[in-house]
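Journal club prep — side note

Before the paper discussion, L.F. wants everyone to see what a predicted structure for a comparable chain looks like in token form. Sequence:
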Amino acid sequence: MTSRDWNKLGEALTTQTDGNVWANEPMSKHTSWRTGGPVRAFVEPKTPAGFESALTWVREQNIDHIILGAGSNVLWADQPYGGVVLHTETALDELIFLSSDTMKAGAGVRLNRILTNAMERGLGGFAFMYGIPGTVGGAVRMNAGTSIGSMNDVLIDALVVDGVGNSAWIDKEDLNLEYRSSNLGPGDVVLEARLKSTGSFSAEEKAALKSAKEYRRATQPLQFPSGGSVFKNPPQHKAGALIEQAQLKKRRVGGAEVSSLHANFIIQDGSATSDDIRQLIREVQAEVFRVHEVWLEPEVQFLGPWSEEDVDAT
């Protein structure tokens, strides 16, 4: 892309949003794995109106674009991306209480912020959010959760704009939330969600949260960049246990390694590329299948200019 082409796009984007626009922004600065190549334009709107205006414009111009929240649970390709990344965390960050037990949260609101606000008010049902480093938008799309609950437990509905610009509040039941999935399509963008407490923050939930904190500190490699849990748990199995039983802890590709603390985490030492991590994911899948005849499906999302083979071979 020539500087003239960039100037034209950058100037146009700047007029379509109220935030910052960066050229050739490295995605390693915006993903929890700290990997990923440069993007043609990284847009960080300041307000919902600025976000929606930029989204509408790139769609009208048929410019490839990707919506990004916290950048966790994401493996971004190393190759340059010729499209636009629209960041949600600044623009869609409003969190307000609609009643004593109901809140509305923008898609860019971090889950730990919701948990903190809920605990301050003695509201139950949100303890599962502890340790999930994502935002509301991705959490709705993936029905984020842990062993003690998921978004399905607290979600009322979500404001979604579809691929042609129509927006509507969609009830939880119509989102078909299942284990790490929903029926939201690739062109659907979550703007807001309404959440409701399941009751008081009980002694049982407090104990479960305390146990989750202790387990996370003891078993997760929090000192290294990672994408969180890499694989979904297959029916009747734990992905981490299958990987450990296949003796894959400490398996390395380049700067990427299967964690010795938790086998469902792939960490990197600062030198890894996304290609290293992708290759290690393949090797883990192949070896676990050889040993257990169970195919592990990635929980992480492959974003950016991956080949169809890279994305589909999951």
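L.F.'s comment for the group: The chain has a mean pLDDT of 95. Keep this in mind when we get to the figures.
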